């Protein structure tokens, strides 16, 4: 991210034009867009092993909280205003499940000067609080016609003829001279101190890739009509659906994930039977099949908006009709009363009796109103695609019995109890609601044989704790009691 706006470009050009040094050529950007410390460790500070490397670089501690990666908006503002920031975007921004945006390791990053604690990265509103959605939209933008059209210019700047020389000056692409590959022969520097300083400069401030193209890169022809700006691309209602050459184009956030990936939708379930099911959150179900593989399903209520709107329109119409009848009745009563008073004044006699209108008719009208039924629609169930390299599963390939805890422990994890490979070993696994096995404990010599039955219960005399009864092939039974997220190493009771 270089000079993305006129004000920032003006500052960089002022630095370039005013820089005077007999040994160092003028430059626009003092730091580089690709550095291990300034970019890779900065963005991935919530992941291992980058967190350990970051602390090693900072003398054993995390950097000052205000300098850590804490907010997308704050990072964008910094990269478009501070002259020392020209960061690139790492691959994690476009692939994976967005774990680099979550503080799943519960690192203590401290509190910023404004009193805000640094934890998960604050996402823009269009991500709707979902790191997965943030990465998906970024990837969709990266694969869009907008980027396809501009990609040759980017190649010219990074790998091509605009990287160096007069073309680099004309395109505002001049970096500090040590960042260019081959610009300095470090091995030829005799002064040890100068050589060390040069190596540190290259290591910590980055280096341009080798120039491999020396003429403008050819532009690719696009075959789809795309949005005119990235803002149009990420707003679902800013563009109509277009059809070009038989391809259905939809704005990024308006299309389902299968459209973004150009993949068919995931089948509803596996070909094998389930042996355990448990609702693990408001909208998620954990299922274990007979091969020991974990499956996660997402369900939600889809209200039939069309029917609800029709009911609301009918209700408004009924209320307006009754209201008009009430107003007509009131007007008739007032007119009759005024006429009676006028007649009495002219004749000098007492006013006549005002007729009464029967309100039961109006009451029956109100009784006949049908209220709006918002419970119209259906449940939608979808099986999640696995975003992990290894499918989460039980240690035993074909378990006979699996138990899943009723209560969630360790914030958002449940306990899965299963056979640990036969011979009396019991497996205890912490599985989070996103489908990742956080930890596994194998408790050996619990039973005399393979696990054949598992039962769990939390409505017992032991209070809020949950008990698991595990039975073996030889008729032995052991009992586990879970009071928190700590996995017990030994069973509480054995029969």
From TrEMBL:
It comes from the Eukaryota. Pfam families: Beach. Signal peptide: none annotated. Residues 1-220 form the BEACH domain. Gene3D superfamilies: BEACH domain (1.10.1540.10). SMART domains: Beach. Coiled coil: none annotated. PANTHER family: BEIGE/BEACH-RELATED (PTHR13743), PROTEIN FAN (PTHR13743:SF123). This is BEACH domain-containing protein. It comes from Triparma retinervis. The lineage of its organism: Eukaryota, Sar, Stramenopiles, Ochrophyta, Bolidophyceae.
């Amino acid at each position: 991210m270089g000079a993305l706006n006129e004000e920032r470009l003006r500052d960089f050009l002022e630095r370039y034009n005013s820089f005077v040094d007999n040994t160092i050529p003028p430059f626009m950007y003092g730091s580089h867009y690709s550095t291990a410390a300034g970019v890779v460790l900065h963005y991935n500070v919530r992941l291992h092993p980058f967190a350990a490397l970051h602390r090693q670089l900072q003398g054993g501690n995390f950097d000052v909280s205000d300098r850590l990666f804490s907010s997308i908006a704050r990072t964008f503002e910094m990269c478009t205003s501070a002259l020392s920031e020209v960061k690139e975007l790492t691959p994690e921004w476009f692939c994976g499940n967005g774990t680099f945006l979550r503080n799943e390791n519960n690192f203590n990053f401290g509190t910023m000067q404004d009193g805000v604690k640094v934890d998960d990265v604050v996402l823009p509103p269009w991500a709707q609080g979902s790191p997965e959605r943030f990465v998906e939209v970024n990837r969709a933008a990266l694969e869009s016609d907008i980027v396809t059209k501009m990609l040759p210019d980017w190649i010219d700047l990074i790998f091509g003829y605009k990287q160096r020389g007069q073309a680099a000056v004309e395109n505002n692409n001049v970096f500090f001279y040590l960042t260019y590959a081959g610009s300095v022969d470090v091995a030829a520097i005799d002064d040890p101190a100068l050589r060390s300083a040069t190596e540190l400069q290259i290591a910590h401030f980055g280096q341009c890739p080798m120039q491999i193209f020396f003429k403008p890169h050819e532009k690719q022809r696009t075959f789809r009509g795309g949005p005119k700006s990235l803002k149009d691309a990420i707003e679902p209602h800013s563009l109509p659906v277009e059809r070009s050459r038989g391809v259905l184009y939809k704005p990024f956030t308006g299309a389902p994930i299968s459209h973004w990936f150009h993949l068919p939708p995931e089948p509803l379930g596996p070909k094998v039977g389930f042996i355990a099911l448990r609702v693990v959150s408001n909208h998620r179900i954990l299922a274990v099949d007979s091969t020991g593989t974990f499956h996660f399903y997402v369900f939600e209520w889809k209200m039939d908006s069309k029917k609800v709107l029709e009911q609301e329109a009918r209700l408004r119409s009924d209320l307006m009709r009754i209201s008009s009848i009430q107003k007509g009745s009131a007007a008739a009563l007032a007119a009759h009363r005024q006429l009676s008073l006028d007649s009495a004044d002219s004749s000098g006699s007492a006013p006549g009796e005002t007729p009464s209108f029967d309100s039961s008719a109006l009451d029956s009208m109100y009784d006949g109103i049908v209220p709006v039924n918002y419970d119209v629609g259906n449940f939608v169930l979808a099986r999640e695609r696995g975003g992990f390299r290894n499918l989460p599963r039980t240690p035993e390939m074909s378990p006979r019995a699996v138990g899943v805890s009723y209560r969630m422990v360790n914030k958002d994890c449940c306990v899965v109890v299963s056979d640990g490979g036969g011979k009396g070993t019991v497996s205890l696994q912490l599985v989070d609601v996103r489908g990742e096995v956080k930890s596994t404990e194998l408790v050996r010599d619990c039973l005399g044989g393979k696990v054949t039955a598992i039962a769990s219960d939390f409505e017992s005399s032991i209070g809020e704790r949950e008990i698991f009864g595990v039975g073996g092939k030889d008729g032995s039974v052991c009992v586990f009691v879970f009071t928190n997220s700590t996995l017990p190493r030994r069973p509480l009771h054995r029969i």
